[in-house]
Amino acid sequence: MTRHAVKDFKVTAGWLKDTRADRKNVAEAKRLLGFQQRDGSVYRNDNVHPLYNGAASIHPDNRRALLAAAGDDYLEAVRQGSLEILPRVEARLDDSLVLVGSPTSEGISRLIFGYTEAMDVEDSLILDTPPLDLPFRLILDRSQIPERALARRFVEDRGATARPNWRIESESRAFIPELGEDGWLRTDYLLVTRLRNFLTADGFAQGHSLVSVAGTHGVGTRALSLLLRDRALLKEIAAVTGRHENPSFQALFRISDIKHDPKAGSRGRRIELVQKPVVIGDSPQQWQEAGRQASHTVQRWLASDTNAD
């Protein structure tokens, strides 16, 4: 099952030979989070963000996170002369996928988590039929966000923007980015989700994975670069997930000490775990049911005009 994605690129595993400590730490972080698979991973952003849909470039915050996720591989590909720049890249749904950005901007994330576009409200996603009952979920439905709850920040190359103050919920808590004077972001959240690739039978049978890197706002998404270099946080994640082979889990992070830079964009300078990562069950029946629930949405997505091969 394939499609041609506008903004993604594929890297082959096994390139990282640089012995410098920072690169080794980042490589280990990527392995821990599931970014690197034996036969490579596809790093992608579907560019369906309402402010950038159809644009030549992706959202700058997603671009920052995309390069943080694949930067070493990208630089090594340049050095090896094996980087190809193509107008369209074929991505298979049964690949191991690293999805950068929330479902607001990343189309395959909508399939994984069960979001559909609201029929009567623009720029609004409804959590309709989630294939999996996950510990954390993004609230991206405008009807659940007061009109005055607008989060302001700077976006690189775009300037000041104001977006609905999306949030994350669990069964018992709401995690709402804190707004300061005039609505400027004081905190944000980053939700990292790793799952078995249940979208196709082949992807599941090959042991491939789906990794979502999603901020409630772009500040959270681009904070992936902080996570990849925070050894203390990574040790906390490993302490929970390291006992499992190919673990599925969710980890929620709070981003603070946000610097609002009109030119470079708003960015967080501090990251911390909200709570211990939550490991998700691994029963075959669970994944089979998730694949069954997602199958109709996947077929519609593959058949749509904008996604057709």
Brief account:
The protein is an alpha+beta fold and 309 residues long. It contains eight helices and 19 strands. The protein has one domain.
Architecture overview:
- By secondary structure, this protein is of the alpha+beta class.
- It has one domain.
- It is 28% helix and 27% strand.
- Strands 2, 3, 5, 13, 14, 15, 18 and 19 form an 8-stranded mixed sheet that branches. Strands 8-11-12 form a 3-stranded antiparallel sheet, with no helix packed on it.
- It is globular.
Topology:
Layout lengths: L1 E4 L2 E4 L9 H13 L7 E4 L15 H21 L8 E4 L4 E4 L6 H7 L1 E3 L7 E3 L9 E3 L10 E6 L3 E6 L2 E3 L4 E2 L12 E9 L4 H5 L3 E7 L2 H5 L1 H4 L3 H11 L7 E8 L2 E3 L3 E3 L2 E4 L4 E2 L4 H20 L6
Parallel strand pairs: 3-5, 5-14
Antiparallel strand pairs: 1-4, 2-3, 6-7, 8-11, 9-10, 11-12, 13-14, 13-15, 15-18, 15-19, 16-17
